[in-house]
Fold:
Amino acid sequence: MQRADFIQPDGLILDFAADSKDALLRHLADRVAEARGVDAEQLFKKLAKREKLGSTGIGGGVALPHCPCPGVQTPAIVFARLKPAIDFQAVDGKKVDLVLMIILPTENPAQHLPVLSMAARVFRQEDAVKALRKTNDVDEISSIFSRALTAAVEEKRLES
Structure:
C-alpha cells in the first residue's frame, strides 16, 4: 500500500455525523461509487454482507470496513472521522470514531490480506491515532498516514 492509496481529496471525510453503521456504510459506498464509477447499491450490499460475518471494528475506536468490488482496479480508500462516535459492534465494545474503508479489486485477491494487515498496523500506532482525532488539516492528515505507513512497513520488515 502506498501513500497515494490512503489520502485522496475525495477520500477524506472529517467530523461526519452518521445515525448508524448502515448509514455510514451507505454514505461511504456512495462516495466510492461516485469516484470510481461502480454501483453504489451493490457496494453497500457487499459491505453489509461483510459486516454480518463479523464486525470490522478492530477496537480502540477504529473500524476497517472492507470488501472486494468488481470494477475497482486499485484499492479505493476512504478515511472518515465521525462526530459523534457510533456503535459498530467493535471487538472491544467501544464506539467507533475513526473509519478507514478499503474497497479492493476482485481480480487480485492475493492483495487483500497485505493491504488490510498494513492498515491495521497503521492504526496500532497510538500517536497516529491521537493525531488523526485532533487535526483538521488535510495535509497534516496525509502526513500522519505517510509517517504511520512508513513505520508500519518498517515494523513488518523487522518481523520478517
